[in-house]
Design brief:
Blueprint (H helix, E strand, L loop, with lengths): L3 E7 L1 E2 L11 E2 L5 H15 L7 E8 L7 H14 L8 E6 L6 H9 L4 E7 L3 H6 L6 H12 L5 E7 L6 H14 L3 E6 L7 H7 L8 H17 L3 E4 L2 E3 L6 H7 L4 E4 L4 E3 L4 E4 L4 H9 L15 E4 L2 H12 L6 E2 H8 L1 H16 L3 E3 L3 E4 L7 H8 L2
Helix pairs in contact: 1-2, 1-10, 6-8, 12-13
């Protein structure tokens, strides 16, 4: 049986980055005790949804590094007690912002079992950070990384390309700084224009200048070539790791493992065909789980989450979207086992033009993107699912 993951969403930020569409509210109004109480209550009520042991924990957000040390201890102790005081976690990740990293917090994170830290640097050029309203500068990223390195031997950093005002040369500079730091893992994302974000509004008003498509392609090539020379493996479209340092928790998402998501806006998956999603409503979330007599799903009363049963077609599409992002590609025999020989034949027929032009590689079992196919992956995956 596939092992499970536990995801915890922390819905507070000091300020909102203009490109972000993740659910969060202002940290100045945060009630950390109430949030911890609600998260642990939700875990207590919903843990029976997990049919296998929890092997990974990922605390994301929002800004988890804002959690006060005492509340972080309370949260982790509560999780451990919920599983009978015995929980064997292979990977425990917390997302942090550079400006939050302190010696005291690092000690608490480490002592509570955190063994992997993901830090959102985004860029090492101050003007680019300022343009997207990041609160830190390049120096605080470098300094924060230095403090983390004293306590952790598995650190990931995030970079973004396509930022307003970014050039190919400034991107090369950010990549060079990242390689001087030599994290075990690096995630690199192209800037996305999510509907309703401040970034999209500013773009539509012509208030910001962005790199063009050719420049973004050049940035991706610079990153891929440099990291390959430095010994990193691109194991997923946006993720690179030194050997053995791939993200276990995220990899299990891509392979369809079950996971339970706690907190407002968090999602869960049973590993078969049921997805559950918590509404983006912190006030209602706290009210639901912190009431004097909170509703208990265990006795069949109303639930906070929304539930979706995935059809065969939706499961097939989801498998394509997730597996084809991986360097390992998709095992077409597994695809056939789940969806039938006719669906597999349709998949290979749809893939044939991309195999012939070198965008896809197929050895009779594994179907995967070639290096040049990665940059047109969205187009390929869409065609495969038709």
């Amino acid at each position: 049986m596939k092992q499970s993951g536990l995801y915890i969403h922390v819905p507070y930020c000091r300020s909102k980055c203009i490109y972000c569409d993740f659910y969060s509210g202002g940290a100045s109004c945060a009630d950390w005790q109430q949030l911890t109480k609600a998260l642990l209550k939700e875990l207590h009520i919903r843990r029976r949804e997990l049919k296998s042991s929890v092997a990974t924990i990922y605390i994301g957000g929002g800004t988890p590094s804002l959690i006060p040390c005492d509340e972080f201890r309370h949260l982790v102790n509560g999780i451990t007690l919920e599983f009978g005081g015995s929980i064997h976690i292979s990977e425990f990740t917390i997302e942090v912002n550079p400006e939050d990293v302190t010696e005291d917090k690092c000690r608490v994170w480490r002592d509570c079992g955190v063994n992997r830290v993901s830090m959102g640097c985004q860029s090492f050029v101050d003007s680019e950070l300022l343009a997207v309203k990041r609160r830190h500068n390049s120096k605080s990223s470098i300094d924060g990384y230095g403090v983390l390195r004293e306590y952790f031997d598995n650190i990931s950093i995030d970079l973004m390309y396509g930022l307003p005002g970014q050039s190919v040369e400034s991107w090369r500079e950010s990549v060079s700084v990242a390689m001087d730091m030599r994290p075990e893992h690096l995630s690199a994302y192209s800037l996305m224009f999510e509907e309703g974000t401040a970034l999209s509004v500013l773009r539509d008003k012509g208030r910001l200048n962005f790199p063009n498509e050719d420049e973004c392609l050049a940035m991706w090539r610079i990153l891929s070539e440099r990291l390959r020379k430095e010994g990193y493996c691109q194991y997923e479209i946006s993720n690179y790791a030194l050997p053995g340092k791939e993200s276990v928790h995220n990899s299990r998402y891509w392979y369809g493992n079950p996971y339970l998501g706690l907190g407002p806006s968090a999602h869960s998956y049973d590993g078969i065909d049921i997805r559950r999603s918590n509404p983006n409503d912190l006030k209602r979330y706290l009210s639901f789980y912190c009431a004097d007599s909170p509703t208990d799903t265990a006795v069949g009363n109303s639930v906070f989450y929304e539930e979706e049963h995935l059809s065969k077609e939706e499961l097939a599409e989801e498998m394509l979207i997730t597996r084809m992002r991986l360097a390992a590609g998709m095992d077409t025999t597994e695809y056939e086992g789940r969806f039938g020989i006719l669906d597999k034949q349709r998949l290979i027929n749809n893939a044939r033009p991309f195999i012939d032009n070198g965008d896809l590689i197929y050895d009779g079992v594994l179907l995967k993107l070639s290096h040049k196919g990665i940059m047109v992956s969205d187009e390929i995956i869409l065609a495969l699912s038709m």
